[in-house]
């Protein structure tokens, strides 16, 4: 009876996509590893926080020491929390209310030290990425935001950037200069330095903005004021979105905010 290896590579890859144990599946044999790895490592998430410190630090070590083939196949980088501490509070796990305890300071100190040591080298191995997703959390140490913004500027093939500004961006806006960037998607409060980012990336051809103003609904800045630093005649073809739905074209007078 024909076995798994009698299938074409495309079907083996599709089977790997459906499995929760893709890591085990990859280790079955060299051929399956070669077929499945490009999809497994095409999307890499870096998310380091109190609930998964060991996993996050282990991932950075694997990338920094090049003991994983992720750098060879990565297309999308998803950068989330880069904070070792977990604050006291509550969260829902499997529908049950669970009290989150603060980690021992010795473990958070260890994790912060390891992040400072490993994060720069780990990021430097991901130069082949063409898309980056960056959620800027207010709890992330300032040095991590500076490091990530500088790293994004070194990516030679990065053409799409998704920004969720959940923390301070203004001090970093001048650093977000990406020579190959053509697509920018932003979820932000109205005070973020969006105009400066757009002005610093003159090759943009697509812009999608979701403006959020906490507790207040209604019109915010006009597109003219939002984009006042952008040179006239720039190539950017706007697609701005908000609480009133999608809007496109430079004739739109207002962006809309969503009240949360």
What structural class do you assign from the helix and strand content? alpha/beta
Order of helices and strands: HHHEHHEEEHEHEEHEEHEEE
How large is the radius of gyration?
21 Å
So what's the overall shape? Answer: globular
What's the count of strands? 12
Low-confidence stretches: 87-93, 237-260
For the sheet with most strands, the description reads: 10 strands, mixed
Distance between the termini: 59 Å
Q: Could you describe the 3D structure shown?
A:
With about 260 residues, this protein is an alpha/beta fold. It has helices at about 10-20, 20-25, 30-40, 55-65, 70-75, 105-125, 140-150, 195-200, 225; strands at about 45-50, 75-80, 90-95, 95-100, 130-135, 160-165, 185-190, 205-215, 220, 235-240, 245-250, 255-260. Strands 1, 2, 5, 6, 7, 8, 9, 10, 11 and 12 form a ten-stranded mixed beta sheet that branches. It has a two-stranded antiparallel sheet with strand order 3-4. Strand 3 and strand 4 form a beta hairpin. Helix 1 packs across helix 3 and helix 6 (about 105-125) packs parallel to helix 7. The longest helix has 20 residues, at about 105-125. The radius of gyration is 21 Å and the shape is globular. Residues about 85-95 and about 235-260 have low confidence and may be disordered.
């Amino acid at each position: 009876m024909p076995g798994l290896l009698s299938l074409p590579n495309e079907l083996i890859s599709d089977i790997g996509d459906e499995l929760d144990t893709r890591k085990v599946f990859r280790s079955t044999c060299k051929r399956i590893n070669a077929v499945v790895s490009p999809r497994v490592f095409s999307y890499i998430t870096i998310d380091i926080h109190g609930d998964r410190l060991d996993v996050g630090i282990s991932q950075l070590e694997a990338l920094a020491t090049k003991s994983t083939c992720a750098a060879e196949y990565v297309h999308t980088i998803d950068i989330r929390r880069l904070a070792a501490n977990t604050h006291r509070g509550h969260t829902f796990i499997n529908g049950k209310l669970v009290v989150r305890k603060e980690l021992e300071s010795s473990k958070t100190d260890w994790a912060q030290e390891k992040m400072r040591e490993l994060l720069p080298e780990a990021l430097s191995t991901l130069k082949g990425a063409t898309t980056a997703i960056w959620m800027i959390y207010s709890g992330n140490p300032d040095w991590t935001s500076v490091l990530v913004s500088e790293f994004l500027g070194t990516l030679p093939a990065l053409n799409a950037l998704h920004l969720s500004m959940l923390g301070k961006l203004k001090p970093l806006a001048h650093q977000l200069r990406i020579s190959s960037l053509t697509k920018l998607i932003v979820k932000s409060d109205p005070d973020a330095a969006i105009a400066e980012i757009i002005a610093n990336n003159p090759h943009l051809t697509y812009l999608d903005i979701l403006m959020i103003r906490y507790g207040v609904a209604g019109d915010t800045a006009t597109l003219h004021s939002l984009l006042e630093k952008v040179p006239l005649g720039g190539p950017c073809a706007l697609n701005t979105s908000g609480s009133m739905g999608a809007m496109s074209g430079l004739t739109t007078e207002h962006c809309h905010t969503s009240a949360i």
